[in-house]
């Protein structure tokens, strides 16, 4: 847009004089809510005027919001894309309006010249870390696994499933016997886990739960307890995000492992944007955030306290 052009021509501009539109998925999980909080804090601390739009997990609302940001002539747009497909047209409209788009925490199946960069973790790797932990923990014993998938068609649901299955391949003692979406929410995670328990001999035939995020795991833990079983011992629980509540569950012996996903995707995004605006520095197409395994051995209540201050 004109502002970016001017800044490129005269340099010296920082992010401070930018207006940025943020199309957020919704607040389906504790992690998502923390990402929103941190994005607003990061914008505030950098003097960025952030226009925020919550899509209630509907792609059509995200597309509407992006079109409105284009009409407003914002300097840049952040998008956390709820699903991976269906973005080509609206991203082309942003490109034609010379407005850079940055993807947060999820990717899209679209030509990569339609966005400036994507700030995400390695979602396949996260599933792989979770799967490897389970392989090592069951150590060759037969183990029927149930899987709570993330939002259908989202890149985390696709990639976390892929990574987990890669880790289990070659270990025939581990079998995924049920797999269904819990849409990344506690409520749906509990509901679907209740159906898994009923379908698997009251849960007696289930050895482990793999949930694509901690919120579904926390809902499932409730269902396991209501079925009279002990989560964390009768049924192992491994998930992803490392939100505070999973560490409380770990401290209570009700969850076993989680793979950390930072909710601060906006920091690297705004840094890339400021450099791009200041002197046209083009960032890599993928800015990867770290993934770290936490287990009950990692002093869960200490981690809980640390996390409570970080946007959660
Ligand atoms: C993953 C992110 C996922 C989180 C969930 O990058 O998109 O969305 O793991 C959230 O908690 O709903």
Features:
312 residues; alpha/beta; 6-stranded parallel beta sheet; 6-stranded mixed beta sheet; 21% strand; elongated; binds beta-D-galactofuranose
Question: What report would you give on this structure?
Answer:
The chain is of the alpha/beta class and 312 residues long. The chain is built from eleven helices and twelve strands. The strands form two sheets. It has a six-stranded parallel sheet, with helices on both faces. The chain has a six-stranded mixed sheet with strand order 7-6-8-9-10-12, sandwiched between helices. β6, α6 (155-168) and β7 (174-181) form a beta-alpha-beta unit. It starts with a helix and ends with a helix. Residues 7-13 have low confidence and may be disordered. The chain binds beta-D-galactofuranose. Beta-D-galactofuranose binds next to α2 and β9. Beta-D-galactofuranose binds at residues 28-29, 31-32, 105-106, 156, 184, 213, 215, 240-241, 261.
Mean pLDDT: 95
The main sheet comes to: 6 strands, parallel
Q: Structural class of the secondary structure composition?
A: alpha/beta
The percentage of residues in β strands lies in: 15-25%
- Strand arrangement, major sheet: 2-1-3-4-5-11
Helix % is 40-55%
Radius of gyration: 21 Å
* Low-confidence runs: 7-13
Alpha-carbon distance between the two ends:
34 Å
One letter per element, helices H and strands E, the order comes to HEHEHEHEEHEHEHEHEHEHEEH
Bound molecules: beta-D-galactofuranose
Number of helices: 11
Gross geometry: elongated
Number of strands: 12
């Amino acid at each position: 847009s004109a502002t970016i052009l001017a800044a490129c021509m005269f340099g010296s501009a920082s992010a401070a004089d930018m207006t940025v539109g943020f199309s957020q998925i919704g607040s389906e999980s504790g992690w998502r809510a923390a990402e929103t909080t941190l994005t607003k804090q990061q914008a505030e601390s950098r003097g960025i005027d952030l226009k925020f739009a919550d899509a209630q997990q509907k792609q059509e609302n995200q597309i509407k919001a992006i079109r409105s940001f284009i009409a407003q002539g914002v300097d840049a747009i952040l998008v956390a894309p709820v699903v991976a497909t269906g973005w080509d047209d609206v991203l082309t409209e942003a490109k034609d309006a010379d407005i850079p788009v940055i993807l947060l925490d999820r990717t899209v199946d679209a030509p990569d010249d339609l966005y400036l960069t994507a700030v995400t973790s390695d979602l396949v790797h996260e599933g792989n870390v979770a799967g490897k932990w389970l392989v090592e923990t069951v150590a060759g014993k037969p183990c029927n696994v149930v899987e709570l998938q993330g939002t259908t068609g989202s890149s985390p649901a696709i990639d976390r499933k892929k990574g987990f299955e890669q880790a289990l391949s070659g270990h025939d003692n581990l079998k995924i016997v049920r797999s269904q979406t819990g849409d990344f929410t506690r409520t749906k995670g509990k509901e679907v886990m209740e159906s898994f328990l009923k379908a698997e001999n009251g849960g007696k035939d289930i050895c482990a739960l793999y949930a694509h995020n901690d919120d579904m795991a926390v809902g499932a833990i409730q269902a396991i307890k209501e079925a009279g079983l002990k989560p964390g011992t009768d049924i192992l629980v491994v998930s992803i995000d490392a939100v505070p509540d999973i560490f409380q569950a770990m401290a209570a012996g009700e969850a076993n492992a989680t793979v950390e996903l930072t909710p601060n995707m906006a920091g690297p995004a705004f840094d890339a944007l400021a450099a791009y605006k200041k002197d046209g520095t083009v960032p890599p197409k993928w800015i990867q955030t770290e993934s770290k395994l936490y287990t009950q051995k990692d002093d869960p209540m200490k981690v809980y306290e640390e996390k409570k201050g970080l946007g959660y």
